[in-house]
Amino acid sequence: MKLVRTEDAEGCILCHDITQIIKDKKKGPVFRKGHIVTREDIPVLLSVGKENLYVWEQEEGMLHEDEGAEILRRICQGGSSAEAAFDGAVKCFRYMSASEAKEGKIELTAETDGLLKVDSGALYRVNSQGEMMIATRHGNTEVKKGDKLAGMRVIPLVIGKDKMDRAEKAVQEENGGAPILSILPFRAKKAAIITTGSEVYKGRIKDTFTPVLEEKLGHYPVEIIGHAVCDDKPEMVTEAILRFLGEGADLVLCTGGMSVDPDDRTPLAIKNSGARIVSYGAPVLPGAMFLLSYMEEGQAVMGLPGCVMYAKRTIFDLVLPRVLADDPVTAEELAHLGEGGLCLNCPVCTYPNCGFGK
Known about the structure:
GO terms for molecular function: metal ion binding; molybdopterin molybdotransferase activity. Residues 192-325 form the MoaB/Mog domain. This protein is elongated. Strand 8 and strand 9 (105-110) form a beta hairpin. It folds into 3 domains: 2-55, Molybdopterin biosynthesis moea protein, domain 2, CATH 3.90.105.10; 62-184, Aspartate Aminotransferase, domain 1 (Alpha-Beta Complex), CATH 3.90.1150; 189-338, Molybdenum Cofactor Biosythetic Enzyme, Chain A, CATH 3.40.980.10. Helix 3 (120-127) runs antiparallel to helix 4 (161-175) and helix 7 (234-246) packs across helix 8 (266-272). The strands form 6 sheets. Strands 6-7-8-9-13-11 form a 6-stranded antiparallel beta sheet. The protein is built from 11 helices and 21 strands. It has 358 residues and is α+β, with helices and mostly antiparallel strands. The chain has helices at residues 41-47, 65-77, 120-127, 161-175, 198-201, 209-217, 234-246, 266-272, 307-310, 315-324, 331-335; strands at 2-5, 18-22, 26-31, 52-55, 62-64, 85-86, 90-93, 96-98, 105-110, 114-118, 132-136, 141-143, 148-154, 158-160, 181-185, 189-196, 222-230, 251-255, 276-280, 291-294, 300-304. The protein is 27% helix and 28% strand.
């Protein structure tokens, strides 16, 4: 790239878009990057205040901003340019599509409903290089087809190839060269609901918990294959868990009986089913008395506290998408939810576009 006087730019190739702004009428490129300047263009360029222009001049070891952006795209999305070709101008790979590079910038968009995963360590390594940037949504966030996932750009008009090579090497050192971003699509699941509590079992009160879960599960590819109402006896709940698992349930949700009252025996019932308890309790409000466990074959069994019934967003909303995307949750990950784990119960809920669980 070199700097030339506009009057001397005839025949030169523009390195970037030239924007024209006319108040209340227009804001946009009057000439696109790559345009070859003609004699007739010069008065127009001068009229938009461009007395000097950056024009393209290939230099050894230097990359155009769009070439650098394509490398960032590959670091985020994975795959080579050939593997990711789609409709000529858009790249679709790993359930996400990429916009055409423009002014050194590329955006990624979800091509399916699922769970966004972000390698935070690798992302930090790239953003620490300077002269380049990648901004993403939070990881472990549920996304819908069409949602914007990330934007990346090279800051200067040209960048050293060695600098882009260092960025790729940093990711290689961090995670072996795996893509920084990935989407785990939601999988079709079979679920069962077990309502616990003598007050419901004996008909003293109406079960208002199950309809809440049916509504939440209805937003995902989940088939509810059974529902049981059990007394507070742990052996009855355990029997129901094992029965539903035997009938093919991938997910068993036990409601109620999660506090420390003498009659609340759901955690014991889940333990007696042979499930591996990941955590009983989570640093999230609402949802502190939540229990997550997995069977040896991978099915998830959860104990849901009463807040899931009456609070709009709880720990259940944070964990459910991960279970439906076959992304196992660890005790360490649950412990990390403390920062951001306080739902502010906003008058208008904007979850997941808020700080809850982030």
